[in-house]
Structures are given as C-alpha cells and as structure tokens.
Amino acid sequence: MDAILKTEHLNLWYGDNHALKDVSLEMPGHQVTALIGPSGCGKSTFLKTLDRMNDLIPGVRIEGQVLYRGRNIFDPQVDVTWLRRHVGMVFQKPNPFPMSIYDNIAYGPRTHGVRGKKELDQIVEKSLRGAAIWDEVKDRLKKSALSLSGGQQQRICIARALAVEPDVLLMDEATSALDPISTSKIEDLIADLKKSYTIVIVTHNMQQATRVSDRCAFFLHGELVEAGETEQIFSVPRDKRTEDYITGRFG
Amino acid sequence: MQEENVMAELPHAPGQGEQSGDRPSALARFKARFGLRTTREVVEFLVHALFFLCGFVAVACVLFISVYLVVSGVPAIAQIGVADFLFGATWNGSQGQFGILPFVLTSLAGTAGAILIGVPIGVLTALFLAKVAPARVAAVIRSAVSLLAGIPSVVYGLVGMMVLVPAIQRAFGLASGACLLAAIVVLAIMILPSIINVAETALRAVPKEYEEASLALGATHIETIFRVSLPAARSGVATAVVLGVGRAIGEAMAIIMVSGNVSNLPGSLFTSVRFLTTAIASEMNYAPVGSLWRDALFSIGLVLFLFIMLINVILNVFIKNRKGD
C-alpha cells in the first residue's frame, strides 16, 4: 500500500495563527481518505495545502513537506501548474465557469495544449461519463453550465477536474451545498472514481465519512489527532477526543 | 367612508377662513381635490410631486432635445435630398454644397481608431489594476486615471496642438501634423478613463471561485485572467466600449484643435479632416441665420444624435445576447 500523497511534519501559519501543527499523514492510492473534524480544525486548510491553493493567500507560511509520489511539492523545481494538473480539486460551492458545458470541460485540456476538435470531443464525453452526467447533458453541451441544477453543476465541476486526467482528486465538502439526492449521486460517483483515482475528501458529515471513505483522519485545533481505517476510527477510536467527536459530544 | 370624511371636512373650511367669505380656503379645496385629509398628507403629496418633477427634468430634456433636433434638422435634409446630404462628398457652406460624407467617414474613422487603440490599453490597464497590481501601485494608477478623466477637453486639445501635432509632423515629414492620426491619438487617451473604470469594476465583480477553479486545473495566473476573468466580465467590458464610442464620437473641442479642420474625405491617417462635431462647432458662427447652410448644420447634429442612438442600441442588443447564452 503505497502512499501517493504524504505529509511530513507539516506546519502552516496564517500570519500568527498556527493553523496546522506538525501534521504527518499518508494518503494511499485508490482509496478514499476522509478528513473530518469540527469547523476551523484545519481540515480544509490541509486539503488546500495538498495542491498549493494556499499559495494564493497572503501571509501564509509553510514548514515541513508534502510529498506527491515521492516529490516534495514545495521544491522550487516543482512547477505548481504541473502539480495542480495531477492533483485536481473540487470545491465546496459548485463553480462552473460562465461558459457552455462543453467549454467548461474542455477548459483544462485546452489550457494544456489540446487543440484538436476530435480529441476534445472525446475528452469531453469521457469526462462527463466519468462524472456520471453524460446522459443528462449530452443533448445540450452548448448550453450554459449555469443553467444546470446545483447537483448537476457539481458533477460538471468533477468532470472538468477529470478532463485533465489527474492522479489525485481533492474534494472540499463537495456535497455540503447540495440536496440529499444529489449528494447520494456524488457519493456513488466517489465510490466509482476511486478505482481510477486517489481521493481525499473533507466532510463534516460523519455518515458520509463512513459511507464513502476507506481511511479517516480526525483533525482538532490544527492537530491531526488520529488517522486510520475508517472502520477502526468509528468503532474503536484510540483517542478520547475522537470518540467524543464521532459520538456527537461536540462539533 | 373616506369620501364621507372628505365631505365632512368641507363644511368646516369656510368657518375657519371667515375673511374669505363663504368660499372654502385654498388649502381645503386642494385637500378635497386630491382626497387628502390631513396637512401631513398634503406635505407627503407635495414632496412626492417634487420628486416626480425632478425626475421628469431629465426625461423632459431628452425629449425636448430629440424633438428639437428632428424639427430643426429635417427640413434642410428634405431640401438638399437625403442621398445628396448623406453621400455628397463635398461640403462648402458658402457655395451651397452640403454633402456630409467627409464628416461621417471622419467621425467613423476617428472613433474606430480611438477604440482600436484605447480599448486594448484600457482593458489591459483594468486587468492590471483588478488582478495583478499590488494594492499600493493600483491606488497610484487609479488616482492618475481619475485625474485624466478630470482634465478639460480643451486642455487635451492644447497639449495635442503643442506637442502631438509637431511630433507627427516631424516623425512623418508632413507639411502639417494636424491630421486624423493626431485626433485619433487624442481621442484614444480621452476615452481611457471611462474604459478603465467600467472594465475594472466589471473585472472585480468576477467571482473568485471562477479563478480558483481555473488555477486548480493547472492554469497559470495569466491564463486564468485572459481565459476566465475577462470572458466572465465581457458584458461589463462591452459596456466600457459603448461608453468609449459615445465619448469619442461626441467629442469636439479637443479634436478641433489637432485635426486640421478641413472637410476632406479621410483618405489616410495624415489627411487634415473635419468631424461631424467639429463641423457644427466651427461653422455655426459663420452661417447666416435663416440660411440653408445654418439649417444643414442642425441636420448634422441630427445625424450625430442618430449615430449615438444607433451605436447604443446595437451594443445593448449585443450585450443582452451574450448574457443570454
């Protein structure tokens, strides 16, 4: 069981705020790792660090290492666009571009130099199928992506992320803005996607974590309290704080 | 019930104002007329009326100007003939030749040239201010831009005449540097502030989520700006272009001083030319009152007015269509 993504003694500060404290975590390939914990515990910050989206925030300082397939992503030799191409992200709020469905999916490949119409057509279809939304939109690829429902938009965003053929998919509370039916569709999709991708999700929904994840990591106040098999975490947590959280005593 | 109340008040009024004999007082009659019961209601009513009148001033002005231009512009066109007026290549007021094609083409060429230069510079500046520049640099540039907007157009003309015209003359070895090119450059600079302001506002309004999504797909900052932010702000940018066109086609003072002011067809960038606006401004004082010449100048005003209306309509339709997709 090789870890595709791995952090070693990761520390992160927003100005004076020590948001991640010495976090070491392994995220194995073809598995779903769920990051859980109460609001403000650092799980989203941790996720965003994995594809360096935190670089955009002024005043961020990072120490320690994040290894993607053995390479430290903060190494000056590493091109951040290369990293983000291989480590894709789906955001909390569905954020399709204000363009047609087709152009949304084709955006990534075009950015990385794919120009051929046939090739793009194939990528678009494959990605939309991969995100289980092809049948719903195949007749209106030229329509604006903003005309779709929230759940459909989120699957468009997943398809858009798949279109650049990433290795890892990060999902930041990707279902928290959706209705239960859309949520269950996306959960099914996650189960399907892990055959081909390594997935890391942030969720505040304990049931979701048990349903979709293989491994869980519990964060509290910027610390990684406990990580392990999801079953083990939810049945026999080693740490008292984990137990308190998953049984709903706080959070 | 209400009517009864009003009626009930009426008999009281004469009693209050005994000096006015048996007739109800003016206030009471006013109240009765508009169904108002208390003095507070009267005040409310009057203030509402005042607001309405203020709002109506703008509407009335537009209506008045439109009607006035049509009434004073149409007879001369009818007398000259629509085709001869619009497509006649020679304008010579004192000789009775009234073809405005040179002015029309010059105004179109001048506006197009100004847009061609001004829009790219303006939009890139807006992108820089909204998406790239550090806050302090942006603040300095922004205040420079608003200063640019505040400079009176006659000053643009003056600087153009003293600096730009001689420079063009020297650079291209011309007999005179006062030409279409000089006017285009001055117009391009003059329309910059409105383009920059409107485009920057539109670019700032682009949701950050779009840009994050693009970056997360491995696009660079610059790719993101041009392929996501700018397209997302396109209706705002189109509005900026409308404003630029409107300002450029309507400007007179600055370009009268640098364009040579001769009614030539705009054969090249170095031709001395006269615009629709500058034709009116420079001849109004010479055309005798009541002459066809003078009436024809009003007709030019009408053509200019129609141009601006047309451009606004076209671009508005264009913006709506883009929004709909």
Write up this protein.
The complex is a heterodimer of chains A (251) and B (325). Chain A has 251 residues and is of the alpha/beta class. Chain A has a single domain, classed as Rossmann fold (3-Layer(aba) Sandwich), CATH 3.40.50.300. Chain A is built from 10 helices and 10 strands. Chain A has helices at residues 43-50, 80-86, 101-111, 117-130, 134-137, 150-162, 180-193, 206-212, 230-235, 240-246; strands at 3-14, 17-28, 32-36, 60-68, 71-72, 87-90, 168-172, 198-202, 215-220, 223-229. Chain A has a 6-stranded mixed β-sheet with strand order 6-7-8-3-9-10, sandwiched between helices. In chain A, a hairpin with a 2-residue loop joins strand 1 and strand 2 (17-28). Chain A is globular, with a radius of gyration of 18 Å. The model of chain A has no long low-confidence stretch (mean pLDDT 92). With 325 residues, chain B is an all-alpha fold. Chain B has 2 domains: 1-37, no CATH class; 86-324, MetI-like (MetI-like fold). Chain B is 76% helix and 1% strand. Chain B has a two-stranded antiparallel sheet. In chain B, strand 1 (91-92) and strand 2 form a beta hairpin.
Overall residue-averaged pLDDT value of chain B? 88
CATH topology of chain A: Rossmann fold
Strand order, main sheet of chain A: write it out.
6-7-8-3-9-10
CATH class of chain A: Alpha Beta
Largest sheet: number of strands, sense, barrel closure of chain B: 2 strands, antiparallel
Estimate the helix proportion of chain A, in percent. 25-40%
CATH superfamily of the largest domain in chain B, by name, is MetI-like
Q: What percent of residues of chain B are in strands? A: under 5%
What is the percent of helical residues of chain B?
over 70%
In total, how many domains does the architecture of chain A comprise? 1
Would you identify the CATH architecture of chain A?
3-Layer(aba) Sandwich
Give me the side-by-side strand order of the main sheet of chain B.
1-2
How many beta-strand segments of chain A?
10
- The quaternary structure here is heterodimer
Radius of gyration of chain B: 28 Å
Tell me about the largest β-sheet of chain A: 6 strands, mixed
What order do the helices and strands of chain A follow?
Answer: EEEHEEHEHHHHEHEHEEHH
Uncertain regions spanning at least 5 consecutive residues of chain B: 1-18
Assign the CATH architecture of the largest domain in chain B: Orthogonal Bundle
Radius of gyration of chain A, Cα only, in angstroms?
A: 18 Å
